[in-house]
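stage 2 :: seqdesign
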């Protein structure tokens, strides 16, 4: 039995029945890492000793006959932009190559309290800017389904680690698609929660009005479980919402008979691979067959989402990244003779090309004279995009679309053309701008590469997403396919 290939809920059952120990599961995961990590390279840091110690504690608890929680004793990987006390947190940047946070992100704290076994930190595009993980300053991560191809990004390491069975689940962050796009490229489940549903405390900020943390899992049940564990109000994050967090696994009935599903026509225009459109149409037929009502609808401002995002996200990034000056922590050019030179050299050497591009774009959009024309205009159009969704959700419980217009692309294919890279996020960005939840799950394959189906929901409508996703998954089984490494 390869324990590393199982889901958290399957492993939980085995732990409770004493068919396996947390130490055995954790060892299985590290054995797998030893076997395939050379090919995949999903991890920036491994925390073996801490992980084995934690697993031992959980096993001792089980040995004493105490009850354990659903994620207790189960291995998890954390994207390297979430602070882990005493463990390197780099954002895959030279700027933070030596940064060891003195505190935990709230999500890490919550997982610790839930008894999770943190096994390592995942590679990513530097500061979460990118769609392929090629922007990591350390190394590239490879797609387990085809190691000549990207895993997607920016949470490419988190996605690849789950797909390669190097971990049971992982956490990523999603500002414009960074959970959903890599999840779809790697054939796993990924959730971008409602803005404010999960605390951002300790998440290294990219674009604060868009960033959300969410899970990568091997099936929908695990996704619902992890979300139930990390969601909820946090006094340390003033944008986190006060809401009662239910046990989301209780909605997994397998039925979609009471759901009305809208199909936004703007997500089925040219530019999407015909084979992907076909798979999404199959999915729509499946939902109809299962008793859901599916109807075409419209989100008329969709075409503005990409330009609006590439004003707002860089604007917020230029402000957030101003703190990296070489003074208090992180990289510093030690040889500079005066402070201005130190700032300049630290920032020119510490940040990579894409991060600098974003800082320049954002600084430009916010500068006096351009603020009204770009930033303010973008905020107004963002409201129109949000209103499109509000209107659609008066009639529909969820909306359905492809997650990405193409399957995983090859290394270097888009790396030199930022515009081509930005276009890979056309279907994911609106969800962040509107602050609503979006989930992706496997819906088939094109030329051996996994394809994701995206479901979008009302604010705090994660329950509907899990319900629909679970029914689809259980009636299709695409999630059961594994890459051959
Ligand atoms: N690919 C998008 C970008 O480069 C989204 C990244 C993200 O969601 N963190 O900004």
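stage 2 :: out
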């Amino acid at each position: 039995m390869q324990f590393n290939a199982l889901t958290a809920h399957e492993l939980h059952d085995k732990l409770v029945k004493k068919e396996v120990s947390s130490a055995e599961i954790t060892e299985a995961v590290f054995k797998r890492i030893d076997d395939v990590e050379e090919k995949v390279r999903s991890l920036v840091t491994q925390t073996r000793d801490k992980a084995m110690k934690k697993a031992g504690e959980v096993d001792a608890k089980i040995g004493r006959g105490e009850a354990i929680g659903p994620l207790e004793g189960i291995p998890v990987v954390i994207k390297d932009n979430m602070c882990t006390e005493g463990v390197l947190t780099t954002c895959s940047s030279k700027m933070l190559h030596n940064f060891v946070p003195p505190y935990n992100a709230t999500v890490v704290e919550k997982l610790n309290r839930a008894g999770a076994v943190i096994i390592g930190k995942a590679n990513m595009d530097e500061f979460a800017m990118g769609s392929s993980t090629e922007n990591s300053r350390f190394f590239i991560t490879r797609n387990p389904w085809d190691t000549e191809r990207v895993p997607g990004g920016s949470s490419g390491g988190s996605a690849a680690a789950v797909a390669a069975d190097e971990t049971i689940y992982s956490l990523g962050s999603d500002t414009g698609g960074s959970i959903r796009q890599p999840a779809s490229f790697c054939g796993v489940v990924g959730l971008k929660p409602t803005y404010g549903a999960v605390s951002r405390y300790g998440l290294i900020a990219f674009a604060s009005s868009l960033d959300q943390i969410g899970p990568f899992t091997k099936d929908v049940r695990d996704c619902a479980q992890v979300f139930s564990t990390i969601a909820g109000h946090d006094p340390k994050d003033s944008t986190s919402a006060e809401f009662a967090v239910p046990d989301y696994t209780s909605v997994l009935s397998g039925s979609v008979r009471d759901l009305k599903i809208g199909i936004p026509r703007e997500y089925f225009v040219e530019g999407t691979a015909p084979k992907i459109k076909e798979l999404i149409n199959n999915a729509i037929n499946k939902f109809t067959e299962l008793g859901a009502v599916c109807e075409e609808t419209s989100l008329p401002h969709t075409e503005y989402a990409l330009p609006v995002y590439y004003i707002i996200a860089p604007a917020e990034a230029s402000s957030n990244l101003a703190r990296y000056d070489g003074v208090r922590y992180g990289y510093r050019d030690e040889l500079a003779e005066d402070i201005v030179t130190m700032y300049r050299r630290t920032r020119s050497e510490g940040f990579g090309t894409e991060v600098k591009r974003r800082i320049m774009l954002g600084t430009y959009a916010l500068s006096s004279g351009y603020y009204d024309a770009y930033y303010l205009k973008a905020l107004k159009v963002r409201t129109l995009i949000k209103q499109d969704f509000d209107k659609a959700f008066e009639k529909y419980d969820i909306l359905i679309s492809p997650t990405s217009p193409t399957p995983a692309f090859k290394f270097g294919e888009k790396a030199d053309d930022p515009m081509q890279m930005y276009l890979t996020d056309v279907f994911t960005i609106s969800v962040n701008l509107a602050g609503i939840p979006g989930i992706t799950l496997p819906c088939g394959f094109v030329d051996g590469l996994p394809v994701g189906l995206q479901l979008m929901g009302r604010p705090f409508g994660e329950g509907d997403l899990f319900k629909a996703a679970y029914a689809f998954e259980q009636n299709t089984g695409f999630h059961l396919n594994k890459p051959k490494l």
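stage 3 :: structure notes
- DSSP finds 15 helices and eleven strands in the chain.
- The pocket of glutamine is lined by residues 128-131, 154, 174-178, 206, 313, 425 (CB under 6 Å).
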